[in-house]
From TrEMBL:
Residue stretches making up the Gcp-like domain: 27-315
Localization terms from the record: Cytoplasm
Keywords, sorted A to Z: Acyltransferase, Cytoplasm, Iron, Metal-binding, Transferase, tRNA processing
Positions with a binding annotation for Fe cation: H112, H116, D309
GO molecular function per UniProt: iron ion binding; tRNA N(6)-L-threonylcarbamoyladenine synthase activity
Residue positions binding substrate: L140, V141, S142, G143, G144, D173, G186, D190, N281
InterPro entries: ATPase_NBD, Gcp-like_dom, KAE1/TsaD, Peptidase_M22_CS, TsaD
Protein name: tRNA N6-adenosine threonylcarbamoyltransferase
Family (UniProt): Belongs to the KAE1 / TsaD family.
Co-factor remark: Binds 1 Fe(2+) ion per subunit.
GO-annotated cellular components: cytoplasm
NCBIfam families per the UniProt record, alphabetical: gcp_kae1 (TIGR00329), T6A_TsaD_YgjD (TIGR03723)
Length: 340
């Protein structure tokens, strides 16, 4: 049987990425990040779509070349349809249409959230059999989403908990912004937290009975707490960056883990996973490892390159949909909002 080679394209936010996957094995994964947003403290949609337009052709070209292939070798092109920024999604979607049409190959639309979860199925080589078994629970934590996903099968996922306001990544980014740490703030807080005392400050956690998350209250209490302290001492933030980072990170992790425990108990799963940008967080990784060890659960943590947005996860999702002949029509349009 001939090999199935999927070109994946991701352009939902501020990373332009292209990847090639051959029979489930990664061949290349190129990501061009957009530094242009840093000085604005967040992603500027207009600038993002313009940068995608500049990056998409060289990024795809490099991904195909690095895979040791030519455009004619590709079996299908998978692209992110949503959720994300409409202008950004349009660039990837339009490129995929043009590529599919000119090469006379099918197109596969991919849900970005489903792709974050399926990143766990990207094989490093043909002997890599270290993948989760169904059903498993995945904590999906990114800049836009915080969800507890019960994964029944590759293309059958159930959201059993979700955020009612901000996402965990947003909580990291907003708290970092309050402390003037730059954007995106998650990785900065992670780094500073390693040298700080996580018990130094206490912040209130939300009281929600079901499996849903909430992070906006935490951000507000952090803001008010700092406003009061800064009135007494204008150097308070500067003098306490390490302890503040460690304490806020610890609170976010506790909020995430509380519901995670509850979800494992409710579902009775034996294997768990984490996905999305926040899964790069070292404190969260340690908390998950400890918990999985205590409860004797199989734990799957993605490679760092598959935590934040990347096209390898789009290509692997496209690979599973390709086998089911779930192809997209040429008149397909991107969708800013999309559930799992
Ligand atoms: O999955 P992702 O790249 O994009 C979305 O789909 O949203 O996630 C980006 C988010 C940002 O909020 C960023 O601050 C956060 O992931 N992030 C982290 C870390 N690395 C990235 N948060 C905490 N610790 C990290 N090490
Ligand atoms: Zn993402």
């Amino acid at each position: 049987m001939s090999k199935v080679r999927i070109l994946g394209i991701e352009s939902s936010c501020d990373d332009t990425s292209a990847a090639v996957i051959e029979d489930g094995v990664i061949k290349s994964n190129i990501v061009a990040s957009q530094a242009v947003h840093e000085k604005y403290g967040g992603v500027v949609p207009e600038l993002a779509s313009r940068a995608h337009q500049q990056h998409i052709v060289p990024v795809v070209d490099t991904a195909i070349k690095e895979a040791g292939m030519k455009p004619e070798d590709i079996s299908a092109v998978a692209f992110t349809r949503g959720p994300g920024l409409l202008g950004s999604l349009l660039v990837g979607t339009s490129f995929a249409k043009g590529f599919a049409l000119s090469m006379n190959i099918p197109m596969v639309e991919v849900n970005h959230l489903q792709a974050h979860v399926l990143a766990h199925f990207i094989k490093a080589d043909e002997h890599d059999h270290n993948q989760p078994r169904f059903p498993f629970l995945c904590l999906l934590v990114s800049g836009g989403h915080s969800q507890l996903v019960l994964v029944h099968d590759y293309l059958n996922m159930e959201i059993i908990g979700t955020t009612i306001d901000d996402a965990a990544g947003e909580a990291f980014d907003k708290c970092a912004k309050i402390m003037d740490l730059g954007y995106p703030g998650g990785p900065v807080i992670d780094k500073l937290a390693k040298q700080g005392n996580a018990d130094a400050f206490k912040f209130n956690k939300p009281k929600i009975d079901n499996l849903d998350y909430s992070f906006s209250g935490l951000k507000t209490s952090f803001l008010y707490f700092l406003r009061d302290r800064m009135k007494e001492n204008p150097e308070f933030i500067n003098q306490n960056k390490l302890d503040l980072s460690a304490s806020i990170q610890r609170t976010i992790i506790e909020i995430l883990m509380d519901k995670f425990h509850k979800a494992v108990q409710q579902t009775g799963v034996k294997e768990v996973a984490v996905a999305g940008g926040v899964s790069a967080n070292s404190g969260l990784r340690i908390a998950l490892e400890q918990y999985a060890k205590e409860e004797q659960l199989g734990l799957f943590v993605p490679k760092f390159s598959y935590t934040t947005d990347n096209a390898a996860m789009i290509a692997i999702t496209g690979y599973y949909k390709y086998h089911q002949k779930l192809f997209a029509p040429q008149d397909i349009t991107p969708q800013a909002r999309m559930g799992l």
